[in-house]
Structures are given as C-alpha cells and as structure tokens.
Amino acid sequence: MASSLFLLYYIILCFSFECLSVSYSQILLLPLTHSLSQNQFNSTQHLLKSTATRSAARFHRSRSDRNRHSQVSLPLSSGSDYTLSLTVGTNPPQSISLYMDTGSDLVWFPCSPFECILCEGKYDPKTTNKPLKIPPNATVSCKSPACSAAHSSLSSSNLCAIARCPLESIEISDCSSFSCPPFYYAYADGSLIARLHKYRLSIPMSSPSLVLHNFTFGCAHSALGEPIGVAGFGRGLLSLPAQLSSFSPQLGNRFSYCLVSHSFDSDRVRRPSPLILGRYEEKEKRVGDDGAQFVYTSMLDNPKHPYFYSVGLVGISVGKKNILAPEFLHGVDATGNGGMVVDSGTTFTMLPSSLYNSLVAEFDQRVGRVHERARDIEDKTGLSPCYYYNKVIQIPNLTLHFVGNESGVLLPRRNYFYEFLDGGDGSGKKRNVGCLMLMNGGDEKELTGGPGATLGNYQQQGFEVVYDLAKRRVGFARRECASLWDSLNQR
Ligand SMILES: *[C@@H]1O[C@H](CO)[C@@H](O)[C@H](O)[C@H]1NC(C)=O
Ligand SMILES: *[C@@H]1O[C@H](CO)[C@@H](O)[C@H](O)[C@H]1NC(C)=O
Ligand SMILES: *[C@@H]1O[C@H](CO)[C@@H](O)[C@H](O)[C@H]1NC(C)=O
Ligand SMILES: *[C@@H]1O[C@H](CO)[C@@H](O)[C@H](O)[C@H]1NC(C)=O
Ligand SMILES: *[C@@H]1O[C@H](CO)[C@@H](O)[C@H](O)[C@H]1NC(C)=O
Prior knowledge:
The structure is a single chain. By secondary structure, this protein is an alpha+beta fold. Strands 3-4-9-5-8-7 form a six-stranded mixed barrel. The longest helix is centred in the N-terminal third of the chain and has 18 residues. It comes from Ziziphus jujuba.
C-alpha cells in the first residue's frame, strides 16, 4: 500500500532525518488497515457480543493499578482492529503489522524465539507477523530513562540492581553495559514478558524511507493469548509519536487519523484509513472533505495514567434534550479519577451507569414508543437497547459535548445505531433489528481510580480525530475518510 511523505512548503531533496527536521509543514501519510476477521464469527450477534465483551474488559482493566502497564491495549481481533505496518532492521528488513493504539505508550511485538501459550484461534498464521529476529546486542541499558519508563518509573538504581550491576558500579552510575531487565505486561485476557531493544525502525514509504535508527521497543519472547503486537501512540516517552518527535518535532507533535466507516461490513474496509503524522495547514484541510471545522477540547493530565488522552465530557444530547454528564467526567482529579479517554483501541464507547441510563431512557422514550424492544437480541449481542422494525426506524440525533465547546460533536447515525437482519444466517424468521452501540461501564463507585468513560473507535468513524500534542488538545471534524486518503495521496 502506498504511503507518502509530503513537504508542503519546502521541497527538500535529501532523505535523511537531518533534512526532514528543518522543514516546517510536512506530513507523513500512512494507511491504517482494518480487518474484520469474520470467519471467527458464526453470526452478527456473535461478532457484536465478542466486540462488546472486549470493549468492557479493556475498560475495566484500565483502572487496575497493580501494574502501570496493565491498561495496555487489549487486542481487538474481533470487531475493530486498526493496524499499521512498519519495517524493522535492515538485513533483510522485516515487516510487521501492529495495532495502532492511543491507549498505551509502548511499541512491542513478538521476537524470535517466541512462545505463545493459548494463542490458537487468535490469529491467522498465514497473515500474522512472524516473530522478528533482533540482534542480541541491540539492547537498552538499565540506566536509560526508557528502561525506567517501561518499568513503571522504577528507579535506574533498582533496575540496574535487578540487572545484577554490582553495588560499587551503581554508586558511581557505571552500569551502562547492563541491559534493562525484562518486564511484564498484563491484559484482561492475556499477558507477556518483553525486553527492551533499540534497533532500526523504518516507516515504509515508496521513497525515501523514514528511518529511526535507535528506535526503542519491547520484544516479547513469551506471551499468553497475545500473538500480534501493538504500536503505542499514547502520551509516554516510549510511544511512537514521542520517539518520532525527538527526531522531527514537526512529525511527532501532532497526529490524526480518519477511520473509514465500516459498519462491520468487510467490503467497506478495503479502503485504507489515513493516519497522518505531522500537521497540515488549515487551508490544506479542504482537500477531500466538506471543510468541516475541528471541535477542540483540552487534553487533561492524568497523574495515575499519564499515557491516556483524557478529555472532559460535559454531556450528551439525545435529539434536543441535553443530558448532563456526572461531574467526574468533566475532569480528572489528583488520584487519576474521571474524564473520558479517547482510545483507538476500544471499539464501543463506555459510559458510567448514571449517564448511560439517562441516555437510554431518553432514547427508549423516543424509539421504544414506536418499536418493539428486541430483548433476545440484547442478550445475544451484549448491546442495548435493540429494536425490531419493519422498513425504517427514526433515531434521535446524538451529540457529544466536550469541555470548551458547547456546540458539540454530532455523531452520524451509523456511529451509534447498528442495523442488521436477524435470522440473516438462515436460522428462523428474518427481521430488521437495530441496536444502540454505547455501553454501560458501571457505576461511579466501580469506576474510581480510573477513567470515567472511553470514547471508542466505532464512535470515531468518519471523523478526523486530531491529537495536537503541542497545543495539548484533541479535535474532531467530520470527514469522508476514504476521499481524504485519496486527495492527500494524490498531492
Ligand atoms: C456461535 O458461536 C458461539 C460461541 O462460539 C456459540 O455460543 C453460539 O451458540 C454459536 N451460534 C450459532 C448459531 O452457531
Ligand atoms: C551489534 O553487532 C553487529 C554485528 O555483530 C554490529 O554491526 C553492530 O554495530 C552491533 N551494535 C551495537 C549497538 O553494538
Ligand atoms: C544509535 O545509538 C548508538 C549507541 O548508543 C550510537 O552510537 C549511534 O550514534 C546512534 N545512532 C543514531 C543515528 O543516533
Ligand atoms: C466550537 O467548534 C466550532 C466548530 O469548530 C467552532 O466554530 C466554535 O467557535 C467552537 N466554539 C468554541 C467556544 O470554541
Ligand atoms: C439531526 O441533526 C441534523 C443536523 O443538525 C439535522 O439536519 C436533523 O434534522 C437532525 N435530525 C433529527 C431527527 O433531529
């Protein structure tokens, strides 16, 4: 798949990093691939249920404080996984495809030798990455900030002691030759042990190729139920944008993606979703879209989960009725409690019970008055409410209201209401059914110590979502994502 580097103002013809870092308006356009592994699912209900379960599991995991990294991406092989291709090493270059995840801050993948326990059926051995070969000397020192970052900010002295650096060397800070000890990551349904390495990573492009010579990543040699790997785009030191920005601030300080709407239809996901590293000028934004403006909201700091992109949510409108979000969604407190995480690695949006229940009550008052509730479908899909209907169903508009912009983000209907044919698999009577695709994340008490809500990637489809790290804000603008890809790529 083509990907391109654009230098909007300066045509610079040297291809090394030094040259790139002096230009001002540049972007790197990369394709995100969305695969729907439909063969894993025997029905739409089954697909939805699995996706709903995984969204909930990741959300609940996100507040666990046993391990700083326990929030790390829960792979979404079921419904919505967006992958990014990278190349590692030179001789020969090895390609790898990773989940693009704004909810975690480390890039990691399986390295040879690799043992994956309970991984049967979790991936397709024909298309999944082969474990990469990384030279044994491509290590990271126990003294490095990267090592501390991977070890939940444990001090270098501790880490070097674990790496068996002798005390006298620790005292004189002379442990550089000792490598960073392995670390453990836990998922809701998997885990792994990885080591930090530093090696050449390139972001594949036709020509020239963008090369990061000393890119730091985790190499997993053993994993439980987790065979793929993740490209962390979160706010930490080790994330891909953070490492990119130390070479080229222009490329690393801002990124956006535009997820092509798929509605779980595999024909629609053939088009790549653009991932845009770097900024492009406001006037350039007119390419391939309706020129819609970004609605911005500030990024909030989360002392306990610093890698999350948290924002404040003030309410959600159902039609003209505005439902206020509980106070703790407006901001994040000193204990890391509250706010809404904008996450590319969760499928369905999770809301605290109070907001979810009010929203559903309002929704059901409008839709349920006219249409029969489909309780059996709710059981089968894990989504609620669902309704049967004949030909058409009127659905109220939903608008998200973030802190700082009262006008809000109006969601396209297909971002929150999924319509399908029940019995379409040949079992029983065929009926049209539609379900609200927002989920109940539990009550406020259960949510203490972590985010109060997550904005899932399903609800982000058809928007360009920008993470402006320099101005510390997140923005949303309606886009035709497939045409945005085409027009940026033709430039
Ligand atoms: C589909 O698979 C799920 C889980 O494997 C199973 O519980 C369900 O009964 C299956 N449904 C059909 C219609 O085969
Ligand atoms: C690792 O070993 C290779 C070949 O043995 C050598 O070319 C390379 O410079 C070494 N790298 C480091 C960081 O020592
Ligand atoms: C990569 O790291 C090695 C060892 O720390 C250093 O010698 C080399 O100059 C670095 N390369 C680049 C391009 O920064
Ligand atoms: C909210 O966003 C819209 C669309 O970008 C913009 O026109 C408006 O000025 C913003 N309002 C505030 C208060 O920032
Ligand atoms: C939803 O919002 C759009 C855009 O503001 C508006 O044109 C449409 O009439 C609204 N639909 C309903 C059912 O209120």
